[in-house]
Specification:
Blueprint (H helix, E strand, L loop, with lengths): L7 E6 L12 E6 L5 H8 L18 E7 L16 E7 L10 H17 L3 E9 L6 H10 L6 E6 L6 H16 L11 E5 L8 H11 L33
Parallel strand pairs: 2-4, 2-5, 5-6, 6-7
Antiparallel strand pairs: 1-3, 3-4
């Protein structure tokens, strides 16, 4: 059982001043709306409704936190999380790219996302979710360039890989690596950027992503401790993740 399966909803914030006063590593997930971010989070945590995005553009303007550790029974139970025992936090950032969202909301999102990824000391790494058929949109590149100066790792997950044939998959991965390798610091040293293919539908790349995220959070090799029905997949909300293609992520 992966430690990511222990993820529980912790808190949600809409302003930087409300970010939790914790000192554990944060692994943030960012991506364009419809890239498959919520589906990826849910399959990696083995929970159908942990990450949720509304069908109404503009409603999901918050940063949502999920805790790892601090709970001593299964993730579907309602006991309180012990904040002082949390070992890491998964952070679901607002999806970007909805054309229908008002200009005011877009500016709020831009400031919230930019300030968070550039200034949050606890942020250990960024997981950038991109559709393997349409990677590195202007907004994805903007996120890369916001985050690169921090020198922290970015792991790119190219979703919906089941939509690609073998040659297309090989080319997508090679081209993505080429883009990432083009980012270097002022001394010409490359940034710690990595990339992989992923498909929730065909269960491609799940173990690779799981291992990478745990390593970035400093949880690799740490055994889980809570008791309960760990093997049971749980849908707490019963609602779909509307910013994703539910049949293919």
């Amino acid at each position: 059982m992966s430690r990511l399966w222990q993820a529980r909803f912790f808190t949600t914030v809409n302003q930087l001043r409300d970010l939790p006063d914790t000192n554990v590593p944060e692994i943030a997930f960012a991506g364009r709306s419809n890239a498959g971010k919520s589906t990826a989070i849910n399959i990696l945590t083995n929970q159908k409704g942990l990450a949720f995005a509304s069908k109404t553009p503009g409603r999901t303007q918050h940063i949502n936190y999920f805790s790892i550790g601090g709970a001593h029974v299964g993730q579907h139970r309602k006991d309180a999380v012990r904040v002082d025992e949390i070992e890491a936090l998964l952070v679901d950032l607002p999806g970007y790219g909805y054309a229908e969202v008002s200009g005011t909301a877009k500016l709020h999102w831009q400031k919230l996302l930019g300030d968070y990824v550039q200034r949050r000391d606890q942020l250990a790494a960024l997981i950038l979710i991109m559709d393997s058929r349409r990677p590195f949109t202007d907004l994805d590149v903007q996120m890369l360039e916001w985050f690169a100066p921090t020198g922290k790792p970015i792991h790119c997950i190219l979703t919906k890989a089941d939509k690609l044939n073998r040659n297309e998959s090989t080319n997508a991965l090679r081209e993505a690596r080429g883009v990432l390798e083009s980012y270097v610091d002022e001394d010409g040293v490359g940034f710690p950027f990595t990339v992989q293919l992923f498909s929730a539908l065909k269960r491609i790349g799940i173990e690779e992503a799981d291992a990478k995220i745990l390593a970035l959070a400093g949880l690799d090799g740490v055994a889980g401790e809570y008791e309960g029905d760990e093997e049971e997949e749980h849908d707490e909300s019963g609602a779909p993740s509307a910013d994703d293609d539910q049949t293919s992520a």
